[in-house]
Amino acid sequence: MEVKQAQLEVREAYGHGSMGQLISGLLWLASAALATWSSERSAIVLLVFGGMFIFPVTQLCLRLVGKAGKLSDDNPLNSLGMQVAFVLPLSLPLVYAVAHYNPIWFYPAFTILVGAHYLPFVFLYGMPQFAVLCGVLVATGLGIALYAPQIFPLCGWTTATILLLFSALSQLSSNRVE
Question: Model-level pTM?
Answer without folding.
Answer: 0.93
